[in-house]
Amino acid sequence: MKAITTDFEYLPAVTVGEALDLLSQHKDDDYKIIAGGQSLNTMMKHRLITPEYIIDIKGISELDYIKYNDKDGLRIGALATHSSLERSEIVKEKYSILSELEENVASVETKNWGTVVGDLVNADPAADPAPPLIALDASLTIASKEETRTVSAEEFAVDFFETAVQPGELVTEIQIPALPKNTGVYFTKYSQLHGDYALASVAVLLTLDDKKETCVNARIGFGAVGSTPIRAVNAEAVLKGQKLTDELFVKAAEAATGEISPITGIEASADYKRELAGTLLKRVAKEALARAKNA
Ligand SMILES: Cc1cc2nc3c(=O)[nH]c(=O)nc-3n(C[C@H](O)[C@H](O)[C@H](O)COP(=O)(O)OP(=O)(O)OC[C@H]3O[C@@H](n4cnc5c(N)ncnc54)[C@H](O)[C@@H]3O)c2cc1C
After folding, report:
1. 94: exposed, middle or buried (C-beta count within 10 Å: 0-12, 13-18, 19+)?
2. CA 224 to CA 130: how far, in whole Å?
3. Helix (H) or strand (E) holding 156
4. Measured in angstroms, how far is the CA atom of residue 11 from the centroid of ligand 1?
5. DSSP character for 62?
6. CATH 3.40.50.150 fits 9-56, yes or no
7. Residues with CB under 6 A from ligand 1
8. Are 255 and 235 in contact (CB under 8 A)?
């Protein structure tokens, strides 16, 4: 049996440039980036992966930030942890949904070490940040030595535990646009225990017109009901351009349950998750509407 403590070469980087150089040198090798190590260490302990090289980015202080301005919105650096997102005053003020979601993520220890970007790259479809980021129309910056590109939050995960990140690439940042006026956003997850992964989760963003009567934009992200987080475009279409009522939310929930693909697991059947997702959508949309009216 391989001893994981001695079988990889440890390569620390303290600048983005150093990390990109290391990634370029090793892009054809069996390597893994480590940030907070919360998911990676677990996979290595269980020998699900046995990389030959570990590129440690935790020391790159230039990636540890959360910044906001009214023009560009919020920028979350790749080393910002769940805890720093939860505690950030600007996040509480402008994107309270993100601090609220952190209240139900994992344990304090995992949140202190684990980065939001690491959670997204780990790409567990039941993880919490992706549905709200889809609803908020977020994107991620991915850099390599050759180029820098941007991928939307809804296209970032491509399959179970698989993302758009290619060998030699580093995710450097998440960007979230500034929210238009009369916008409300809400997220909830249903899990068996506090801090557990979701059985189903949903985030809804609603923007109302100047009279706060008609929905001018709706974005809906689901988690844990498919091999990736899912944007529910058919459900969004039910809401856009309409006066929002409980009856319409029922129709949106029906549309959404047709576009998600839950999988039967140990905790619940696919049918149960589908039903749960529809129920959550109705509740979450109602709260997003109340927030939009008060915004
Ligand atoms: C007990 C436990 C409970 C949890 N519960 C929840 C929960 O309720 N909800 C939830 O959402 N999450 C949960 N998580 C997941 C947790 O949030 C993630 O493990 C953590 O955020 C990952 O971040 P990290 O910095 O530790 O990443 P690491 O473990 O260091 O890396 C994870 C993956 O991302 C890659 N990676 C990291 N950073 C980059 C980068 N900048 N560019 C490219 N690749 C990168 C790594 O190579 C690796 O593949 C839980 C984890 C644990 C251990």
Report:
1. middle
2. 10
3. helix 153-156
4. 19
5. G
6. no
7. 32-40, 42, 57, 78, 82, 105-106, 110, 113-115, 117-119, 121-122, 127-129, 165, 170-171, 195-197
8. yes
Asked if domains 9-56 and 183-294 share a fold, the reply is no
Contact 230, 195 (CB under 8 A): no
Please state, rounded to an integer, the average pLDDT across all residues of the chain.
96
Instruction: Kindly report whether the global pTM for this prediction surpasses the value 0.70.
Output: yes
Does domain 183-294 fall into CATH 1.10.8.60? no
CA of 40 to the centre of ligand 1 (A): 7
Are 281 and 131 within 8 A, CB to CB? no
- At residue 21 the predicted structure's pLDDT band, cuts being 50, 70 and 90, is very high
Cβ pair 139, 146 in contact under 8 A: no
In the chain, domain spans: 9-56, 61-176, 183-294
Distance of CA 290 to the CA centre of its chain: 24
| Domain 61-176: assigned CATH number | 3.30.465.10
Contact 206, 288 (CB under 8 A): yes
Residue 1 predicted with pLDDT over 70: no
3-state secondary structure of 211: coil
